[in-house]
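Reply to dn_fold:

You asked what the input looked like. This is it:
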Amino acid sequence: MRRVGTIVLLSLIVAACAPSTQPRGGVAPLPPPYDLVISGGRVVDGTGAPWFYGDLAIRGDRIARVAPAGLLRDAPARERLDARGMVVAPGFIDIQGQSGGSFLFGDGRDVSKVTQGITTEILGEGGTPAPANDRTVGDLSRLPPERQAVVRQFMTPRGFSRWLEAMERHGVSPNVGSFLGAATVREYVKSMALGEPTPAELDTMRAVVRRAMEDGALGVASALIYPPGNFAGTAELIEMARAMAPYGGVYITHMRSEADQLLEAIDEAIRIGREGGVPVEIYHLKAGGLRNWPKAAQAIAKIDAARGTGLDVQANMYPYIAGATSLSASVRSIGARMPSDLSRRALLGLAVGLPVSAVFLWLAVRGADLGDVRRALEDAQVGLVGLAVLAIGLVYGIQAMRWRRIAAAPHVRLARFYEMVLTGIACNNVLPARLGDFLRARWLAREAPMPGGRGLGTVVLDRGCDLVALFTFLVIGLAAVAETAWLVRIAAGTAAVLVALGGALVFARVYTARRSRERRERGLVRGVVRDAAELLAEPIGRRRLASWIALSLGAWAVWALGAVLVARSLDIELSLVEALFVAAVMNLGVAIPSSPGFVGTYEWLGVASLGLLDVPDEPALAFAILLHACWYVPTTLAGGTALAIRGSLRVRRARAGRSSEGTVR
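and this is what came back:
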């Protein structure tokens, strides 16, 4: 880039825009005449040596000579500047420059920077205008025609190079270089979608990085608190690093956190550099927020430790205590779409579940006198119903204890597991396709922490224990009913599910034994399957498995006690064995695809199972409705409230963290 024609002296004097200097004792000086002599200043030559009073001569765009003060007093020069009381230094480098817009469409002289002694700007934090495509650009028509023409140049295979050339044609004063924005790479492939890239998308990302490095990029720059950059996982960034490593690229990062999760963010940056085989530079290192100030020493220690192992890790900082950033940093999913696989599952669940539930609800109420059902509900004994609610609440506590043992996460409080169980059920109550179970897996993955696939594997094992207990009670209860033909079919179906679960365990062991990790790590679905399979393939141990089954049997026995209390509140005589049978039928039946909360399905199963015990349709339907309400209403209220409170706390923490780690971009 062309150098500035006039050198402005404030507290700092720019010697030249070119980075080359002539230190004392270095290259032989050039003889006069000179274009410019700067005399009497305090020279800081950039080598780390102490400052000294000296004279400096410039010819063209090169430093011709650096000499002790007064030595160039009589040297012929076209222009002389008296720098007494000022500092003469090489131009400063703004490693986090944000003047890209001016370099393309504005005042390329960059006066505000140059007058402060900044002669080089490095762009690219998080995002760059190039390379571009329809996903990154969006609607081009919103731009003026002349800008459309410029941006279209970036929508080519060598878009990054075209961007650098466009800035040079526009004319800029400082030297300019740029990293490739990691968010740009992601948006180039996935737009603003959440989720990990597919293998094909990851291949495209690697190709984009390689082309940009060939075009002159300094490396890859991430900004992991801004969408869509914060959608990228660590593995994705490692792959970008590996793609640029052969070109000598550097990974520079605005980390995921500079406050509450500062140390974890440094660990991630170091891991990306180590596994990607590239040097690491951390933007504006800080410990944001008073409560995080003690972490500053630990942060530096982590960097020093990484350097001690041979990894090139460095950091920069700004010398002031204020900061600011954009609102998007506080809202993770601005413009983001729900992952397509999750949205398809939800839509399919509604499309199938609602009609099925409608059919079962019709089967439950047909032939019943709804007036008698209403009167039975009005006459129910509230005290017994309250005890039933407490019993069912205890069931979820036992299940939380079991899930905690399955997850092998004793460091996570039992109360947190109980909360996750309740909120997962609350989500199942209002969302289709048992999405609450998937959310439970995600919450556990964050709490433990563990990969999401392993979290899902714990939920599979947790539900499998329920199936074993319910199937056991179903077999025990067969003796309590007269007509067993359809129960045999239910038992056969349950047995098939258990066989499928056993098959999944066998598949998991074969999968983890034969499939290489390199291939298994590609793609979101494969990654989840890999992690879940690895968990399911791990040996359990008889004692550990026995404790899971014992807790499962105990939980559903307490549930049956709750069913007895509900029946007694309606003056229905129900023994504990019969209640075990009814609980097994009703809860095994919820595996039938139905609406959120199993409305309709649950009522029909209650009427059908009590009908086999010679209970009339009206009290049987009242029993099913009341038992359904005993778990549906409390879990929806308690789980929904817990979810709202936790979400509110997370928003508050995020706001506090963003305000404390606000960054001048």
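The first strand starts at residue 12 and ends at 14.
Hope that clears it up.
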